[in-house]
Design a protein that fits this description.
The complex is a heterodimer of chains A (503) and B (305).
Chain A: H1 2-11, E1 27-32, H2 47-56, E2 61-63, E3 70-72, E4 75-82, E5 85-90, H3 104-115, E6 130-137, E7 140-145, H4 152-159, H5 165-178, E8 186-192, E9 196-201, E10 218-223, H6 227-236, E11 241-243, H7 247-253, E12 259-274, H8 288-297, H9 300-308, H10 338-347, E13 354-360, H11 364-376, E14 379-385, H12 388-397, E15 402-407, H13 416-422, H14 434-445, H15 449-466, E16 469-482, E17 485-486, E18 501-502
Chain B: H1 2-29, H2 33-38, H3 44-53, H4 60-72, H5 86-121, H6 126-140, H7 143-157, H8 173-199, H9 202-209, H10 214-226, H11 228-243, H12 246-251, H13 257-266, H14 270-298, H15 300-304
Helix pairs in contact in B: 1-14, 5-6, 5-8, 5-11, 6-8, 7-8, 8-10, 8-11, 11-14, 13-14
Classes of the chains: A alpha+beta (503), B mainly alpha (305).
Chain lengths: 503, 305
């Protein structure tokens, strides 16, 4: 409704093409609706936190978003000594933004600090594989693993930026949030949590970095809650770049002169989660027949076509197809069949359906579509719509019988980042299936890729057979930005502004 | 006058006390506070340790007194979400909300007073009809819709005003209009009714008979009496603007207290919600008290009655 007003104005020719925006003063103005509560990458849970981190900090290695190849970043080279030992030789001559030189101490300190559970890094899955890190020289470190963990490089490349030892030891997560300091292509001029940040190009950025040297001089971000406001700002040229534009609005934005729209499928998948283990008490979804009924009740293909749009596809396996170990081979499929759904409900003892609470935290209209499908077979689901952090806490407390949620795997191109997080007994695990857990753990730790794949395949088949999750579809990110800007989105849903430049 | 003032003050303090108790209960009723503070991965022993450390094992009234003492010293707790002191967060955002509220009030008064006076002078004329139409529309328009219309006209088409943010005073023009327009009709109707009543009274007829000029009668004798209810409502309305700016702040991306409150509710960030309820309620109480005192000062009948 609200978006339509703006479009009506466009259609009436009321709005002139976007004016010259950030290009003349070399400032890229970004807006998004998310709020980063803490700029310390290890203490926020929003996707935009990763986006920010990539600009400010560097990791040991970088994964080329197009080829998937690992390239040394702060490291000069790396070598697996054995399945439990990973050696890194580090680059010399790199400095943090505050001028302190980068050395092995910074790497060892950062990773050891993260691996200590007492420091309460939010996503423990990201660091729990690290046993300890030792300095083997002024520019050499050795990582000891608790157990073989073949996806280690993926994690190091994606979500483990290296912090300056002296500074972080002094200021801690809150201080790092207020004045972030890293080695990355941009340095922070101002950072207000939840509100805005300003970045300046790091002219001293090392030229050997596979990230490349940044081109744009200044980046200014603002959190703008409402999408219509973001679109209006983009059209007037006060904002140069927005993302997560809903499919219908993206289509219309394509017709606006001076604005470029690009879409890319992302690693994020949507799923309906069930409390199959009965953590929330005696809930109907404990019964597999009820879960199967729900699986047959929802027309995922229609949702992809009409709501998600773009390159999105229906998924049957609980992972994103490009991830290592992800396969839908032998994975049970549940076609849209409301009549069958009603039969199954009757068999389960609910001929007249039942009432249930459903939880969601984004894409409310999609959650409402799911509720509509459920209602058609007699299930009366009541929506509780929360912010992510609030819903995550409810999940962890085990009080949510049914939920529509999404997972972007922290952009990690390996199924351990999704299965390992949800089905190995963590507070997010609503299956509590010991056999499933052991397959996944074998997959996470085996060295032989064939063994990993075989175990993950069994796990994915089990999840589908038992319907612990109903995987829905992949997400598509729609980006809209000034036609002056040369920007390419990547499938890992991490916009790289250091690689963007003005035309 | 003094007795009246003291009575009002006592009443205000009583209301403040009640509000503080409600605000205090908000956090306690939201669930197990010790569990929330310890974090979801905490063990039962961690939770107990936190419970002791924060005095959550004490009787409720002891906890309330401790909390009230801290609140009086400006310590409103720490946000679950931002991990920052709540008082500092509110202080940083209050200027935005205050600027918005006061400009909305000014806008509403600047439009409502002249229109109300004109309408009272010429009842049932086209001015009166226009004023009536404006006020009906003002009460009926959903504020987000009106805000977006303003945005399209002044932001996108004419390019006169910035669409969002707080970069300059210009950023507040549209939000103030959008917010103030909703309160404007009340002022106008009050001014019109007050003026009509006063203009029909004996002393105005006497003033006219004495040969005073019309503008002098209107502004010096009539308006001063007619405006009394407007003053009272203006103070209450300002409180309403401060607390009710949630939608406007969100649409125009103003990071003020209203928006913070709204976001904090959906994030279950109760220390922030609690503090905002308390702060806004206190504003409301102080403004109402001021309005009462000002009214009594302007109209002797109130302080005697």
């Amino acid at each position: 409704m609200r978006g339509k007003l703006a479009w009506a104005a466009v259609a009436l020719g009321l709005i002139a093409p976007a004016a010259q925006a950030g290009k003349p003063d070399d400032t890229l103005n970004l807006a998004w609706s998310a709020q980063i509560e803490n700029y310390d990458q290890y203490f926020n849970t929003v996707r935009e936190g990763i986006v920010f981190a990539r600009e400010i900090w560097d990791n040991l290695v970088d994964r080329d978003p197009r080829t998937g190849e690992y390239k040394p970043l702060l490291a000069k080279s790396y070598r697996w000594v054995d399945p439990l030992t990973l050696d890194f030789a580090l680059r010399q001559g790199i400095s943090f933004h505050d001028g302190t030189p980068f050395t092995a101490t910074d790497v060892a300190y950062t990773l050891n600090w993260l691996a200590d559970p007492a420091n309460k890094v939010i996503t423990q899955q990201n660091v729990s594989w690290i046993k300890s890190v030792e300095e083997t020289g002024p520019f050499a470190v050795r990582i000891h693993l608790k157990a073989p963990f073949p996806a280690a490089l993926e994690y190091l490349a994606d979500i483990l930026p290296i912090y300056p030892h002296d500074y972080y030891a002094k200021v801690g997560p809150q201080g790092m949030s207020r004045h972030p300091v890293g080695t990355g292509p941009y340095k922070v001029a101002a950072a207000e949590p939840g509100k805005s940040f300003t970045l300046l190009r790091n002219d001293a950025y090392f030229k050997e970095s596979p990230k490349g040297r940044p081109a744009i001089g200044r980046i200014v971000q603002r959190s703008i809650a409402e999408m219509p406001t973001q679109i209006a700002e983009l059209m007037t040229g006060s904002i140069d770049w927005i993302w997560q534009v809903p499919a219908d609005q993206a289509e219309k934005l394509r017709q606006v002169p001076g604005v470029t729209v690009k879409s890319a499928e992302t690693m994020r998948i949507g799923y309906v989660g069930f409390d199959a283990a009965g953590r929330s008490g005696a809930t109907p979804v404990k019964d597999r027949r009820v879960r199967e009924a729900i699986a047959h009740a929802i027309d995922r293909a229609a949702m992809v076509k009409n709501l998600v749009g773009g390159d999105s596809r229906v998924l049957d396996a609980a992972c994103f197809p490009s991830q290592f170990g992800c396969t839908d081979e032998g994975v049970k499929r549940y076609a849209y069949d409301p009549a069958l759904a009603k039969t199954l409900l009757a068999e389960a003892g609910y001929p007249n359906g039942f009432d249930i609470d459903i939880y969601a935290y984004r894409e409310r209209p999609w959650a409402e579509a799911i509720i509509g499908y459920l209602r058609a077979v007699g299930i009366r689901a009541k929506l509780t719509y929360l912010q992510y952090a609030a819903l995550r806490d409810k999940n962890w407390a085990g009080t949510t019988p049914l939920f529509y949620m999404t997972w972007g795997s922290n952009s990690i191109n390996d199924v351990s980042a999704i299965l390992g997080n949800f089905f190995t007994g963590s507070p997010d695990d609503f299956a509590r299936d010991a056999q499933l857990k052991s397959w996944i753990e074998t997959g996470d730790t085996a060295i032989d890729p064939a063994v990993r794949k075989a175990n993950y395949r069994q796990a994915l088949q089990r999840i589908a057979e038992e319907i612990y999750w109903l995987p829905m579809f992949s997400y598509v990110a729609n980006y809209a930005f000034s036609a002056d800007l040369d920007f390419s989105p990547d499938a890992d849903e991490v916009p790289r502004f250091y690689a963007a430049h003005w035309k | 006058m003094l007795a009246f003032a003291l009575k009002r003050l006592a009443l205000a303090l009583l209301v403040a006390l009640t509000v503080s108790i409600i605000s205090f209960s908000l956090l306690r009723l939201s669930g197990d506070l010790a569990q929330a503070l310890a974090g979801p991965s905490a063990t039962a022993a961690d939770v107990e340790a936190v419970r002791k450390a924060y005095g959550l094992d004490q009787p409720l009234w002891v906890q309330y007194l401790a909390w009230a003492r801290q609140a009086l010293h400006g310590d409103l707790g720490t946000s679950f979400f931002f991990k920052e002191p709540v008082a500092a967060m509110i202080a940083a955002r209050l200027p935005v909300t205050m600027t918005l509220g006061v400009s909305a009030l000014l806008f509403a008064l600047l439009v409502a007073l002249p229109l109300g006076i004109l309408a009272a002078l010429k009842p049932n004329s086209w001015v009166d009809r226009l004023a009536l139409t404006l006020s009906v529309v003002g009460q009926a328009l959903p504020s987000f819709w009106f805000a977006l219309m303003l945005m399209i006209l002044f932001g996108l088409k004419l390019r006169w005003l910035p669409i969002s943010g707080t970069a300059s005073w210009k950023s507040f023009v549209m939000p103030a209009i959008a917010l103030g327009y909703y309160g404007m009709p009340t002022f106008m109707r009050l001014t019109r009714a007050g003026m009509m009543e006063v203009l029909a009274s004996d002393y105005i007829r006497t003033a006219r008979a004495k040969g005073l000029r019309a503008p002098a009668i209107l502004l010096k004798h009539a308006l001063r009496n007619a405006i009394v209810p407007v003053v009272a409502v203006a103070a209450v309305q300002l409180g309403f603007f401060l607390g009710g700016s949630i939608v406007i702040e969100s649409v125009f991306a103003l990071h003020g207290v209203g928006y913070l409150g709204w976001e904090s509710i959906s994030r279950a960030d109760f220390p922030v919600v609690q503090a905002i309820v308390l702060v806004l309620a206190l504003f409301y109480i102080v403004l109402t008290l001021l309005a009462d005192l000002l009214n009594a000062f302007l109209d002797p009948r109130i302080r005697v009655g």
